[in-house]
Amino acid sequence: MKGRDAATLDWIDALAGEPPKGEELLGELQRWSEAGWIRRLDCAFARFVAELHPGAAPLVLLCSALLAHMEGRGHSCLLLEELRTRPDELLGWAAEPREALAALMKPLPRGREDWLRTLRDCPLVREADAAGDGDEGDGDGDEPPPLVLAGERLYLRRYWRHEQRVAAQVTARGAVREPVEPGRAREWLDRLFDAPAAGREGPAGPDWQKIACAVALRGRLSVITGGPGTGKTYTVARLLALLFATSAEPGRLRVALAAPTGKAAARLKQSIEAALAGLEERLAGALPLRELAARIGAARTLHSLLGARPDTRAFAHDAAHPLDVDVLIVDEASMIHLEMMAALLDALPAAARVVLLGDKDQLASVEAGAVLGDLCRDAEAGGYDEASCRYVAEACGERIPRRFATAQGAALAQQTVMLRESRRFGGPIGRLALAVNAGDAAAAQAVLQGGGGEVRWLDAATPAEVVQLALRGRDGADGGYRSYLEALRQRPPQDDALAHEDWAREVLTAFERFRVLCAVREGDWGVAGLNRAIEGALVQAGLLRKGGEWYEGRPVMVTRNHAGLGVFNGDIGIVLKAPGARGALRVYFLEGRAVRSVLASRLADVETAFAMTVHKSQGSEFEHTVLALAGDAAAQVLTRELAYTGITRARRAFTLLSPGVGVLAAALARKTRRASGLPQALEARALRSR
Question: 125 near 156, Cβ under 8 Å?
Fold first, then answer.
């Protein structure tokens, strides 16, 4: 960051307790953007507010800039009281910008009521009433004002609308109870799950997977959350079988599968198909599952499902043009941002069921909002009322322990189930993930230093250690990227199209066994720097031949949706020569077992993908995952959720690269908290419905 220049210091000194004028404040915000403390977009929004209302108070301009700044960091609103009383805690800025903000705020109004009155008096701010409603058209012109004040939260208008739409949909769907015959549900659930063992309410607890199916059967909205290995897709496959079995016309039940990314969607489809195939034998022909499953169709990205269109944020499917589905299963829901969740719920027919699957403890979406985290805020505690406990006992024979029951639970809690037992993560990776999720730095360090070949910490001073792992792997986790490069050399005859498809599938599958994950995009330790370093090392070792931007073997990640080509942001493919004598370069993608390709020249928005951010890795798993936590930029964004998400991408081996184990301890001490009014909006609507 650049330091403040002499003009800035002189200007701050000149204030001497006198409130700054609008232009003076905008000039200071401009200097902040040039120093990199806020985005240019944040400063531009404050100028936009000033242009709409030249008399806007300096406090309004400052709040506008910081609101835009916080939205860029994933928050859906600005917490005014925290900005007024604890700006350092809210913003998390370094010393120099903190001092500049303190100097700028010193002559501004001090009291809480003064702040609120100043904002209410601005014609560009609409105040919402206590129930979350307000007149959308009370501005100076035909357009509603760009800012909304709700209590002590300030919103950009569109995020306020998104939040209210999600709250309205969740409340309406969560209140509906589908007619369920408990005896028939019990009959099928006992077939689909193992019989309850005596004493199941002991340490293992009840069968939460079975409970999740029973709960989802009775509602039009349900949330199933749980960490890796807790069986979310295993559970939802049994839920689908249950829905088919209890439907009056199972052959006409329209089921859709979706996820935020192509990789996550493909994994969802593959996992459900495998689980349903296993149930076919278990049910001994009582239900034509194979035939019914074949009608489900491919899992799709949310953008594809809703009908993304170029040059507009609107989708083809909305409330006026709903989706043609009866049941929608959405995986990796933690990645769904507020705007997308609002669009998704709006596009569902009123009578359709939606089941949201995800890990509430993973990183939230890159864009504003943490919807799954908000919906699962009380999932740990359960909060099931007497009617829900009775229904669960009748419908599936499981008893909810008293510690998860309450006299009067929230409506959403009755349709939320947390899966609490991990069947996959029982070794060092699982213990490390649990320690990180609990914020237990000592336990995490013990696992890292005693995890054997499965878990390893390497003290990394330079990115060279990452490059060596990419080239050779390490003891207990061999290979790095060599397995996919070896597969790349096994090219079949040019004229054998079927063999070429099998080869492409093998190359893509081998590439997915290993991945380097980063905390940030820029810098030597970021995605850009590590991709350059790994690519250069592979070329130097003779493992790749690079003749330009596009070359055979280059792994790429799509960075923009291209609905016409069938590729979406986050999809990962590998550049290969097409079969035939001319062998044009195409980017091949794997969806389950299916292989498809797009001409490389048609994909303008891609980046090399030897390394990727932890955010972009959600929805994927790799046999060996390397998490690089080093560099000054990474230190500013490290959180408990980022570390947990990175660790849980590993199936068999995990390597942490950092300059000392204290880096991980610092990350565990910093838990992500996103400003949101969704929980309050849900509570307000629940009170109105009573």
Answer: no
